[in-house]
TrEMBL record:
Transmembrane segments: none annotated. Mg(2+) binds at E243. It comes from Caulobacter flavus. One of its GO terms (cellular component) is cytosol. This is Delta-aminolevulinic acid dehydratase.
Length: 333
């Protein structure tokens, strides 16, 4: 694209269009609407709402409260909700045995939410970490995360979620080949309409910290103190292109970049390269930073939230997965 030559100052004054709210609105290039938001939500096995200490304003919701929240999402014009489970530590084991339990909190929440507000899309995380006592997303053997054995478990889990009525399955584990395997299993079992949003470019990030608190996932152990053997190195861009190309070839309907704000360059690059519906996950640490700085009066919290959401749209996101969704939809609706 070539930019036409500008007449020199003073004929060209870019500030002319910025002088009033009406003219700023008139030339605005992007806009965040409630329809751009996916509400990131934690559900728990108990009753009521339990605040998450490191994420002020976020609560773990019971199945009943999650159903009410689905109605609220519908009324606010939020198209979809992504749910994540908090599991009692006493029910976790090394294999994450209850990850595919059809009576678990996730399938119960999906059913209750779809009953209460069938118009709202429900997205489920496909991963083992909420259910394992070591906190990894996969099957661990001798300190190694086994790729193919993990995929078998993810397929059981994903099929169970689809059977419960989940609209979108979102594998967040970063095992190789899991999108193709899951797509194949869904087709074979008659779930051809179940969508897949791949956590395609997911980085081994420090910004997931508060999420561990929110879902009560274990501190990483088992000889591996981090997720660097499956999640991507924050230093890499070209590798993200290869990851996403594979996931699209394997059948992903939508792709995601995670975390969000520190990775806008990756988002832009992927949108330009693949022209797929591409989503940004504004993760727990991003939420916590804005809330903490806001609570201290160091930033204007409301403006910072809206500015961050606008930045995702400007960078090319089709939508944003965010814990701010209900607040933002109310503000923007
Ligand atoms: C794990 C998963 C994580 C998040 C979503 N799914 C954490 C991780 O990969 O360690 C992070 C969400 C957030 O930080 O808000 N499968």
């Amino acid at each position: 694209m070539t930019v036409p030559p500008l007449a020199p100052y003073p004929a060209t004054r870019l500030r002319r269009l910025r002088q009033a709210d009406w003219s700023r609105r008139l030339v605005r290039e992007t806009e965040v609407r409630p329809a751009d938001l996916i509400w990131s939500m934690v559900v728990h096995e108990g009753e009521g709402c339990v605040p998450v200490a490191s994420m002020p304003g976020v609560e773990r919701l019971s199945v009943k409260e999650a159903a009410k929240a689905a109605v609220r999402a519908r009324d606010l014009g939020i198209p979809a909700i992504a749910i994540f489970p908090h599991i009692d530590p006493s029910r976790k084991d090394a294999a994450g045995s209850i990850a595919a339990d059809p009576d678990g909190v996730i399938p119960r929440a999906v059913k209750a939410m779809k009953d209460a507000a069938p118009e709202v899309g429900i997205m489920c995380d496909v991963a083992l970490d909420p259910f394992t006592d070591h906190g990894h997303d996969g099957v661990v053997e001798g300190g190694r995360i086994l790729n193919d054995a993990t995929i078998e478990r993810l397929i059981e889990q994903g099929l169970m979620q689809a059977a419960a009525g989940a609209d979108i399955l979102a594998p967040s584990d970063m095992m190789d080949g899991r999108i193709g395997a899951l797509r194949g299993a869904l087709e074979a079992d008659g779930f051809q309409d179940t969508m897949i949003m791949s956590y395609a470019a997911k980085y081994a990030s420090a910004f997931y910290g508060p999420y561990r608190d929110a879902i009560g996932s274990a501190k990483l152990s088992a000889g591996q103190g981090d997720k660097k053997t499956y999640q991507m190195d924050p230093a890499n861009t070209e590798e993200a292109i290869r990851e996403v190309a594979l996931d699209i070839a394997e059948g992903a309907d939508m792709i995601m970049v995670k975390p969000g704000l520190p990775y806008l360059d990756i988002l832009r690059r992927l949108v330009d390269e693949f022209r797929m519906p591409t989503y940004a996950f504004q993760v727990s640490g991003e939420y916590a930073m804005i809330k903490a700085a806001g609570a201290n009066g160091w930033i204007d919290e409301e403006r910072a939230i809206l500015e961050s959401l606008a930045a995702f749209k400007r960078a090319g996101a089709a939508g944003i997965i965010t814990y701010f969704a209900p607040w933002a939809a109310e503000k923007l609706g």
